[in-house]
Amino acid sequence: MTKPVTIAICGAGYRGLQRYATYAEHFPHECRIVAVAEPRQWFRAEAIARHSIAPVNVFLDWREMIKQPKLADAVIVATQDKDHSEPAIAFMNKGYDVLLEKPMATTEQECRDIAAAAKRNNVLLAVCHVLRYSPYFRALKKVIDSGVLGKIVNVRHVERIGFWHFAHSYVRGNWRNEAQSSPMIMAKCCHDMDIMRFLIGKRCLKLSSFGSLSHFTAENAPPEAPKGPNARCVECSLATDSCPYSAPKFYGKMLRDKEFDWPLNIITQDFTEAGLAKALAEGPYGRCVYRCDNDVCDHQVVNMLFEDEIAVDFTATAFTDAEVRHTEIMGTHGELSGDSKIIKVTDFRTRKTTTTEVAALDITNLGGHLGGDFGIIQDFVRAVRERNPETILSGPEISLEAHLMAFAAERSRKTGSVETIALG
Ligand SMILES: NC(=O)c1ccc[n+]([C@@H]2O[C@H](COP(=O)([O-])OP(=O)(O)OC[C@H]3O[C@@H](n4cnc5c(N)ncnc54)[C@H](O)[C@@H]3O)[C@@H](O)[C@H]2O)c1
C-alpha cells in the first residue's frame, strides 16, 4: 500500500474546500489534506475540522504558507481568477505539483508564465478544465476517435448557461465584472474553447466573435424596480412571479426544498429563513439584476477555423432554462449530436442511428460538471502518486491553447478583427 498523496489548499472556498478537498474525505487512503491557507474564518475552520489539519499548517494567506519548507506533495490553487498566477508560479518554483483552477490567469502573459514555470520546474500542472474528465465528454471523444463520422467538417457547440445561473454568477456574483475577474468568454467559456480543442483533436487557427451585454442593464429595469446602485429585490414592488430573476423566489425555493448546496451555499452558510433574509438584504446576491455593477456579455458567438479546414461555431447565452451544453459534429461519413447526456450517432453508410445515454456520475458532491470534478481530482492524485503526467488531460501547453482562443475571441469582439491564434 503506497502512502497517501499529501495536499495543501490555497483558497479553501467553494471549489477548494467544498469540491476538491472532499475527495480526501471519501478516499483517505489516496490523499490527505495537510495544510490550508484561507483568510475567511468560517471556511478556514471548516477545513481544519474536516481534515484535522495541524495548527502549525494553517495560514491566513498563501504568502505565509509559501515561506515554510514544502508542506505537501501538491497544492490546489483555488483562489479567485485574478489571484491564480502569483501563487501557482510560487508553489511550482518551490517544487509543488499544482492543480490550478481555471482560468489559468486573466492575462495572456501570466498564462504563458504559468506554463513556462511548470516546464522549468519539471512539476505536474493540471488546469481544471474539468469537462475533459467527465464520462460524457470522454464518450463523445471515443466516438470521434473511432472514425465512424469520417473526416470532421463542421462543429456546432452551444453553452446554454441558464438564466438563473447567469444571474447568480455573472450579474450579481463573482464573475460579473471584467475588471474584477475576467470576461465571460474566459470565465465561463474557456471550458468550451478547451472541449472543442479536445474533441476535434486539432488546433484552432483563426476566429472572430460578436456579443454584448444586452439585458442586465438599468435601461431594461421594469418601472417597479427600486432605483439606485444598491437596489434590492426585497424592496421591489413587482410581484416575484413577474420577474424571472427574483432572488427571494429563487433562493427561497432552494431553502424550502432543503437544497443547501450550490448556489445557496455561496450566498449564506445559515440555512434558515432569517439567514437567507439577511443575505438578501445585505449581500450581493439580493441585488436587483438591473442595478448591479456588471459589465460582462450575456451572449456571445465565436466562429472558428481549425486545422484541416474544420469550421466551428460556438454560442454562449444566458437566455436558456437549464444549464447544459449541446454539441453537433458533422463528418463525411456520419453525424453526432449530444446534449450532455444522450449521444446520437448516425452512420450515413448504413443510415442507422445509435443512441447512448451516458450515466451521470454522482459521487458524493463531486458530481458537478457531468462528473468532471470527480474525474480531475482522481486523475490528478494518481498522476502525483505515480509521478506520471499521462493521466493529466489538461496540462499546461494544451490548456494554454484554450486560453489563447478566449483572449483572441474577446479581442475580436471588442475590435471587430479576425484574430489569428499565435501559439508558441
Ligand atoms: N473548474 C470549474 O468549472 C470552476 C467552477 C467554478 C469556479 N471556478 C474557479 O475556481 C476559482 C475559485 O472559485 P470559488 O467559487 O471557489 O471562489 P471562492 O471565492 O469561494 O474561493 C476563493 C477562496 O480564496 C480565498 N483567498 C483569497 N485570498 C487568499 C489568499 N491570499 N490566500 C489564500 N486564500 C485566499 C478566499 O477567501 C476564498 O475562500 C475561481 O478562479 C473560479 O473561476 C472553476
What would you note in describing this structure?
There is one protein chain. The chain is α/β, with parallel strands linked by helices and 424 residues long. The protein has 3 domains: 5-123, NAD(P)-binding Rossmann-like Domain (Rossmann fold, 3-Layer(aba) Sandwich), CATH 3.40.50; 131-216 and 295-366 and 396-420, Dihydrodipicolinate Reductase, domain 2; 227-286, no CATH class. Helix content is 34%, strand content 21%. The chain has 15 helices and 15 strands. It has helices at 16-20, 22-26, 41-51, 62-65, 85-93, 108-121, 135-146, 163-172, 184-187, 190-200, 247-256, 264-267, 273-282, 372-386, 396-415, and strands at residues 5-10, 31-37, 58-59, 74-77, 97-100, 125-127, 152-160, 204-212, 299-306, 310-317, 324-331, 334-338, 342-347, 352-357, 419-420. It has a 9-stranded mixed β-sheet with strand order 14-13-12-11-7-10-9-8-15. Strands 3-2-1-4-5-6 form a 6-stranded parallel β-sheet, with helices on both faces. A hairpin with a 3-residue loop joins strand 12 (334-338) and strand 13 (342-347). The radius of gyration is 22 Å and the shape is globular. The two termini are 42 Å apart. The model has no long low-confidence stretch (mean pLDDT 95). Bound molecules: nicotinamide-adenine-dinucleotide. Nicotinamide-adenine-dinucleotide is lined by residues 10-16, 37-40, 43, 61-62, 78-81, 83, 101-102, 128, 130, 187, 369.
The CATH C-level name of the largest domain is Alpha Beta
Number of strands: 15
Which ions and ligands are bound to the chains?
A: nicotinamide-adenine-dinucleotide
Number of DSSP helical runs: 15
Number of domains: 3
Write the H/E string, N to C. Answer: EHHEHEHEHEHEHEHHHEHHHEEEEEEHHE
What distance separates the N and C termini?
A: 42 Å
What is the share of helical residues? 25-40%
In what order do the strands lie side by side in the largest sheet?
Answer: 14-13-12-11-7-10-9-8-15
Give the rounded overall mean pLDDT.
95
CATH T-level topology of the largest domain: Dihydrodipicolinate Reductase, domain 2
Protein structure class: alpha/beta
- Beta strand %: 15-25%
Determine the CATH superfamily of the largest domain. Answer: Dihydrodipicolinate Reductase, domain 2
| CATH 2nd-level architecture of the largest domain | 2-Layer Sandwich
Q: Rg from C-alpha positions? A: 22 Å
The coarse silhouette is globular
| Largest sheet entry | 9 strands, mixed
